[in-house]
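Justification of computing resources. Each target in the renewal requires a structure prediction run like the one illustrated here; the chain below, 131 residues long, is used simply to show the kind of job we budget for.
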Amino acid sequence: MRIKRGLLIKDFWLEKILSRKKVWEIRGSATTVCEKIALIKSGTGKIFGTCELVGVKGPLTLKEFRRNRLKTGLSKNDKVDELPYDKTYAWVLSRKSIKKLKTPVRYMHPQGAVKWVKLSKTVSNKLSFMD
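Resulting structure tokens:
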């Protein structure tokens, strides 16, 4: 399956995803994307892993967010007083599909991309070969 796009994620949260301690990527909007995606560490120009984005939950209530805090990468002791966004959504990742690449893959970061990056065929083919 060809990976067409990559999701930009901050280092701290990406490490939790790659170690399978986080399967809900929390965002302020929903997405219609449900496919295999590349996991990009923000600011590096590199893809560090892949996974299957399988759905979206939300908007979440504070109670739902608290009840599922482990899925978000938080610990059961982390205090949650408010939602991170006015409308908070969980982008659901398939735990079994999460794969950390042995060697990160470089890609060309388009100007203005802050959430999604469309991957070139060359990068996509390289990821398919590594999978």
